[in-house]
Amino acid sequence: MSEPLVLGIETSCDETGVALVRGRELLFDAVASSMDEHARFGGIIPEIASRAHLEAMVPTIRRALEQADVDLADVDAVAVTAGPGLQGPLTIGASAAKALSVALGKPLYGVNHVIGHAAVDELVHGAFPERAMALVVSGGHSSLLLVDDIATKVTELGSTLDDAAGEAFDKVGRLLGLPYPGGPHIDRLAREGDPTAIRFPRALTLPKDQADHAYDFSFSGLKTAVARWVEARRDAGEEIPLHDVAASFAAAVADVLTAKTIRACELHGVDTLVVGGGFSANSQLRDMAAERCAEAGITLRIPPIRYCTDNGAMIAALGSALVRADVAPSSLDIPVDSSMALTVTHV
Questions:
Q1: Which of 89, 194, 223, 340 has a 20 to 30 Å separation from 129 between CA atoms?
Q2: Beta partners for residue 25, in sequence order
Q3: In a 3-state reduction of DSSP, which class is residue 76?
């Protein structure tokens, strides 16, 4: 019996992603982005993103089917992001998925976007071991997940208490006068700077924080510390060493993310770490994670950058895992949930 063919739809933010996955094999992943339409506003405008999803949905589905060389009638299940994300964009994707489910007479799976960022790694590196740790970091999420079964048993150990890592990068980028989104520009500057030039704070890392926030993250205070440092230099009429500021800021973020994650792996007896989400493209995070995992004897799995940003492949991958695990499909009246908890893989 052949593996199930799952069509995945992702519309949690500004990317319209559609992919086809058979088992753990990606047949094709099509993405249409509206990022350029948001750049002049310095952030994502939900109404603009929603309209872009409406315009891109049918052409993107058609492109995915044509490139995968499959007919829509061949699809065994439809998976869609049900949350977390922006309410309007989520609704567009869910509506399209429900319509396809009804028209095809195939089951629908409303899945968790954040867990999808971990699930996509199976398309690259194969099945997860019996237990793995997943660090999902992006513009809206910084989450540490203990994965016993990607379809049925994912436990959230920690998350961001305020700004997510990618969000902090965008805000610091704006502070430094860099184009939106700030993350890639700070990463580029950081490669030529000294990460030890400025000692920025590492929040929630002191002994007093371990009882309640051992695996939680906070980057709002770090962002404020960078702002005060830059403002003090500007007030003094001094030039801002952009490369060193970027490198020192990026190092502080990567240090906290990797230190807490490695500690969680050790305490939970995990020897495989999966890193996903858009912010996992950050070079300092990748380098520091590789170095610290090697020192701790932990296998590091990071998908190629094209799988780290929002895409349909991650949703199809999680949908495929649910189908293979014989999990009951979602009902057609499932709501979208902009703040979906990580205690559920699907709704």
A1: 340
A2: 22
A3: coil
Cis peptide before 181 (omega within 30 of 0): yes
For 85: left if phi > 0, alpha if psi spans -120 to 50, otherwise beta; the answer is left
Radius of gyration, alpha carbons of the chain: 20
DSSP code for 39: G
pLDDT in tens, 273-283: 999 998 999 99
| Residue 157 phi, psi dihedral angles, 5° rounding | -90, -35
Identify the pLDDT of residue 181.
85
pTM given for the model:
0.94
Sign of CA dihedral 147, 149, 152, 153: negative
Report the DSSP pairing between strands 132-137 and 5-10.
unpaired
Distance, CA of 181 to CA of 41 (rounded, Å): 11
Token pair 């071991």 is at which residue?
129
Beta bridge partners of 276: 136
| pLDDT at res. 327 | 97
- Convert 116-178 into a string of H (helix), E (strand) and C (coil): HHHHCCHHHHCCCCCCEEEEEECCCCEEEEEEEECCCEEEEEECECCCCHHHHHHHHHHHCCC
